[in-house]
Amino acid sequence: MTATRPRTASRVAAVQALFQAEQREQSVEAVMQEFIRHRLGDPPGAGGFAEGRVPEAEVDLFARILRAAASHEALDHDIAAALPPEWPLARLDAVLRALLRAAVAEILMAGGPPARVVINEYLDIAHGFFSGEEPGLVNGVLNHIARERRAAEFSGPR
User: Fold this and answer.
1) Residue-range domains of the chain with CATH
2) Do the beta carbons of residue 151 and residue 116 sit within 8 Å?
3) Whole-structure pTM value
4) Which residue positions in the chain have pLDDT lower than 70?
5) CA angle (30 as vertex; 25, 32 as ends), nearest 5
6) By three-state DSSP, how is residue 54 classified?
7) Which helix (H) or strand (E) holds 94?
């Protein structure tokens, strides 16, 4: 991420926080507060990305995504329904699960950015984490959910 992409940095931080919450079995709210206090922004002397910080993240967007993803059971239902049979939700890598939860939460978020923007952002993030089939899976799942849940955005000419 670069200094010119703070919204992308917010999304990356959201994926990291959702991953941490699942791995440590902590509440999303507790992890969110920890990230806001210790990992977002770049105070003097902090090491930036190299030290696990996300210096350019927008705290408001980060928090909105996490709060929307906090009850991931509903998101998991949509994600599982969009996954191919050979990729059940339980089989997914934990980072991939966190990425899909953040993306779907943002797609379903009232007043959020256009679905195509969300899909492109999370596809870029997926390419940053994975080099195999995972980005294609992310694209397929998010397109399926966005076309189902935000059909009006896909009904006209491209």
Assistant:
1) 6-151 (1.10.940.10)
2) no
3) 0.87
4) 1-4, 41-55, 156-158
5) 110
6) strand
7) helix 94-108
